[in-house]
């Protein structure tokens, strides 16, 4: 039997990149997957179609998590589909901004924290009634939370906040039997890490990693599926580095 057979999962930011890989990995493991998106409707439909073509169950679901009411809106849509139990929440949706300290604006800073920290915080709050014993939450953190990487200090601060929330939420939700963890990728071949597609960016990435290749979204999606599964049933409050041995 597949490790997520019969389970329900919500993956935010699942139309592409790491979110897409996580959605496909969870579906492969037997979960019904809600594929959240904001603007990538066509890409989200493509993920749903791929899951269904393999015999899985999936639905696309839209909500703008940058808006203060976005988490409540998304939670209401989720409950309308899955009912009174959500087994897996992958809080992956995020935005990045490359800017020096001098260039970073208040609007940039607030926008990063709105999507990367405020949205997952209140999404967990809104989904609490349907997170039951045995449910699992997986956040997406980053290597940038614990290592200096270029001009992304404001983004890095949001991921540091995620690592802190993982510990607090794990402590708060532990008595309910809900596990909370995060994965911390390094540089991954996604739109968010476009610099790694250049020769200079590739050389920089490979120079700081023990494993000498650029990570693919599937490398991270599999780790997320593991943390969400019963195979990780005794892991909570942890941030798992999935970065090819970067910045050792």
Mean pLDDT: 94
Strand arrangement, major sheet: 3-2-1-4-5-6-7
C-alpha Rg (nearest Å): 17 Å
What is the count of β-strands? 7
CATH superfamily, by name, is NAD(P)-binding Rossmann-like Domain
Low-confidence stretches: none
Kindly provide the name of the CATH class: Alpha Beta
Helix-strand string: EHEHEHEHEHEHHE
What separation lies between the terminal Cα atoms? 37 Å
User: Could you say which structural class the secondary elements and strand pairing correspond to?
Assistant: alpha/beta
Number of helices: 7
- What CATH architecture would you give? 3-Layer(aba) Sandwich
Q: How many separate domains?
A: 1
Shape: globular
Q: Into which percentage range does the β-strand content fall?
A: 5-15%
Most strands sheet: 7 strands, parallel
CATH topology: Rossmann fold
Helix content: 40-55%
